[in-house]
Each structure stands twice: as structure tokens, then as C-alpha cells.
Amino acid sequence: MSITQRQLATELGVSQMAVSFALNDKPGVNAETRQRILDAATAAGYRPNAAARATRSGSTRNVELILGLHEGVSRIPTGLLEGVEQALTLHDLHLSLSRLPDEKLVEDGFLPRVVREVAADGLLINYTHFFPTELLALIRRHRIPAVWLNAPVEEGCVRPDDHAAGRMAAEHLLELGHRDPALFFVSAPEHHSGEHRRLGFEEAVAAAGGTPRVTVEASRPYREIRRDLATDERLAYTQRWLARADRPTAVVGYSHAESTMLLIAAARLGLRVPEDLSIVSIADEITPFLGTPLTTVVLPWAAIGRTAVELLCQHFKRRPKRPSASAIQIRPELELGATTGPPGSAAPPA
Q1: Which residue among 6, 83, 90, 171 is buried most deeply as judged by most CB within 10 Å?
Q2: Which residues form the HTH lacI-type domain (predicted)?
Q3: Averaged over 110-126, what is the pLDDT?
């Protein structure tokens, strides 16, 4: 059992107030006594009583990250977690994590109980799609400080500007001289980013006088397509599309998965990248694949994580009745790799 402040005070022959001041780095105790108290506390293995501190301050200094149980609905990019951690450290906050089933999330009173039992001041909700719609109303009704991450929610949400991502990818290819670039989906995306990227892409191509080409190759939902290495159906769909006589000179991959499939399929078909086919990826970071760094519209996950924590801290200070009326969208950045260039003169495969 950890030694208490009272025991430390008795052992050192000082007041409990002096011990408290020294341990909490407050004025009111001279430097020599402060150091003596700190040395004794370290030697005795003193640990602050978090529960007592929370009772006194009304704050646990803890934020709970809420995840769903279904596959793919709570992906945590590394940059997002890094950004959250950076901002939490700046505010002397800590992070804990809960994975919760839908049926529990929508029980009236469950989330307030979670906040109490995990001793959290507020929630970061990383439940990006397919979440129960009743959850929004519950959070609002109980006035739980919460910020959504990359969800199709307007109030109290921070996400990438996916419309800008689609537009930036198209504009880069248009500037290189490609007249009718394509946007490629292996299958219809279930996340809102697919629609937003498509709209940005189409607007950019149409504004340049081109004809937007959007391809969704598979009719089945993405989660139903086999993705193991031995029988990756994504590659078969991608190669079939690139083998067509009317393939474009440039293509934007909806995500890193599409872009890597495009690179592999191009290699199998004998297409040179970027001479025969330019490829732009929209992904978490620029990465080399098959020895080739993909030109990438990089999603700003670290900035999203930091912004989400800052927004949550505003809730702590104001406790507003309603969160901000529109989502905060963070603009991505284009990073050039080796997969884009002016259109070549090679003929499409027969």
C-alpha cells in the first residue's frame, strides 16, 4: 500500500499542507524542505490518490476512446493516435479505451454509467460508420462531452476533408496533361469518404472540361470481397479493369488498397508507371510499394487527433448545451512520389 501524505508529514515532522504544496509544485514551502519531501516521497514509493484528487477537482484528467466491435468501423490510423496523444500530453490528460457492442451503446443510461465507471471527463468516439443513430440523441440528451472522429456527423466531429482529397488528386493529374482521369473503387465504399472523394474528383475534372470517369468494379460490398493473400479478389477485379481497351492514362485510387492493387495489376499487364499509367493514392501516408513511392494525397490524421482533443477540452471548459453545428474538416496535402507524370504514347493492351 502506498504511503499517504499524512504519513509523510508525520515522518518528516512537517505539516500535511507543506507536503501537499511540495508534491503539487505549489508555492508556500522553501526549497530545502520541498526537496526533502520529494526525496522522501520517492524513497517511500508515494503515488497520488487519483480518486481523491478527482473528488477535490471535479476532474479525472482521463479521456475515454470509444470503439465499435464490427470489422472496419473503428480503424485507428497511427497518425490519429499520435495526434491524440500529443494533445492529451499538452493538457496533462490520459487516455483509456473501450470496445462496446451496439446494443449496449444505445441503452439509455449506459454511456453516462461508462463515463462514471471508467472515470472519464469525456469521450472520443472512433465509430466511423454503421453506428446506431440513437447514439447521437443519447449523447446530446445526457450532455456527455464527446467528439466524433471521421464520422458522418456534423455536430462535434473532426474528419479529413475528403472532398478536397478527391479534388486535389484530380487537379494534379489534370495539370500533368491527363484529360480524362478515372477514380477507381474496387467496390462501393461503405464509408462517407467514398462519396465525398467522388464529388471532389468529378467537380475538378468537369471544371477542366473533361469527362469524369468513376469506376466501381465489383457489385458486392467491400466487406464481402475476399482479401487474403492467396485469393485476393481485389487484384482480379483491378487487373480485369486495366486490361480494357479504353483504360485511362491516369487513375486515382480511392484508398491505399486500390492504389497498390493498381500497381500490381499494371506490372502484371506490362504497363509502365507512370509512362503508361499514372496513379495517385489517397491514404494515411506516402509509402513505397514494389520499390515505388506512390504519389499520395496524405490524410492529416495527426492534426485531426490534436484538433479533436482541443475541441473536447473546450467542452470541459464551457459544457455547452449543443456542440459545434458543423464538422471540422482538416485539409490533406499532396505529396509527390514516382507514380505520376505526363501521359505517354504507349497504346493500350490488346
Answers
A1: 83
A2: 3-57
A3: 72
